[in-house]
Amino acid sequence: MEDVPLAERVLSCVELIPRGRVMSYGDVAEFVGSRAVRNVGRVLASDGGTVPWHRVLRRDGSCAEHLREEQLARLAAEGVPIRDGRVDMRAARWDGRAGPRMPFPSRTGSVAGL
DNA sequence: GGACTGACTCGGT
DNA sequence: AACCGAGCCAGTC
Predict the structure, then answer these.
(1) For A46-67, how does the pLDDT look when each residue is reduced to its tens digit (9 = 90+)?
(2) Which nucleotides of B are covered by protein (CB under 7 A)?
(3) Theoretical Cys-Cys bridge with A59: which of A16, A24, A50, A66, CB 3.0 to 4.6 Å?
(4) What is the pTM of this model?
(5) Residue A81 and residue A72: Cα distance in Å, rounded?
(6) Residue A29, SS3?
(7) Which nucleotide lies nearest residue A7, CA to C1'?
(8) Strand ranges, E, within chain A
(9) For chain A, how many helices (H) and strands (E)?
(10) Distances, alpha carbon A105 to alpha carbons A44, A51, A75, in Å
(11) Pick from A25, A32, A26: which is nearest to A9 by CA?
(12) Is residue A88 scored above 60 in pLDDT?
């Protein structure tokens, strides 16, 4: 994770996202130790075909136009909660550092998935 | 070496 | 809630 190109770190991170969970572009960037949040999208645009790119979306749960349909379809198939065309980030957002089953640090005080 | 780009994010209106 | 403008930085030309 040091001399490896950012692009590879990004791809590795995306591969780690468990089924049924999502991360925002910003989360991925932070996870790989970069603030190049825009590059995450660029990396996926060129090499995303090899990783579960559909588990990466915007912070507000919406996603890029050209991906919206397929992304939502795939996520829905994995059981990701979707409300009115956007992913329910509160419930599906995954913090790689904390682990797949961690409840959410309560911005809302409630637990994920409820 | 410099300028441009983008699957983003955030704060202010 | 939606729109706008500015900041961000690795890759590409």
Answers:
(1) 888 899 999 999 999 999 988 9
(2) 5-10
(3) A24
(4) 0.84
(5) 10
(6) helix
(7) C10
(8) 23-24, 56-57, 82-83, 86-87
(9) 5, 4
(10) 28, 27, 23
(11) A32
(12) yes
